[in-house]
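Incident log, structure service

09:12 report received: a user says their structure output differs between two submissions of the same chain.
09:20 pulled the input from the user's history:
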Amino acid sequence: MAQFKNLKDLLTKFSDEQTCRDFLVQRRWNGTPICPYCGCNKSYKIENGKRFKCANKDCYKKYSVTIGTVAQDTNIPLSTWFGAVYLIASHKKGISSVQLGKDLGIAQKTAWFMLHRIREALREKKGLLLTTEVQADETYIGGEEINKHLSKRIKTRDDKIAVVGAIETGGRVVTQVTPWVSKKNVSEFIEKIVDKKAKLVTDGSSAYMKIGKRYEHIVINHSAGQYTLNGFTTNGIENYWSILKRGIYGIYHQVSEGHLQRYCDEFAYRFNSRKIPDNERFEIILGQLTGELTYKQLTAKNNIRANGQDIETKETGE
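09:34 re-ran on a clean worker, output below:
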């Protein structure tokens, strides 16, 4: 376990690329490189330790420790990647690309790309199953129309994005961006992540009535001024929404609909690992940096909102 208390300690410890590569080999492969092409666990160091060559005579392919990770095919030093991972892991409300660029001495555009790649790695790929007492609720992310300039207001409903979520009381949280909150969308989300034997706690919204028939369903009637029932409450998920919104509105100000799920994944990961130290969280993230997200994918049209602009690139971090 690496011992450091802050960013200065981390950058001092990982000041050169070989130290970073050796540490990543330890975290990713437990110290023994594994060929990504054939799975052979015997390789030779080449290029002064920068890369490896598979010892399997039927393979003999060359690879580096960053292959298959979010740091693959970038010219950004690993020490900079390490700094970015530590900052996104340790800042409780997240960090803007503007601030990350200033902290690490890189361009805002580069910092923005790095942050989204790291968020992609934080996504829960295996899925979580909530098993005991589960609180479910929905919220909406986006600015009020009254706060916008007249030229940018729309004449319909507030330009908000729906997010549904479920939290195990005192435990983990799962969130999902959805086009709208409906019985179908809510039911599919809950069935996927909530064990059939769990107690489901919701407010009186009709969206939960259908799925509620498949669980032991406790309904807290907020419209009647009820906020607890026999010790059950939805305070846990509502408190989490406040954490998510404070981070998004306070740090990023606005994010685009196409990227919102990654921000939700980032906040959920940090919340679910809240009981472990920052340096331990940093090491865990390094060990799971697998995944690929190219700049072309990140800026594809389905990630862009009205007027052809990605709102999040306007973040100020102030």
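09:41 both user submissions now match this output. Likely a transient worker issue. Closing.
09:42 reviewer note: The radius of gyration is 22 Å. Residues 235-252 form the longest helix (18 residues).
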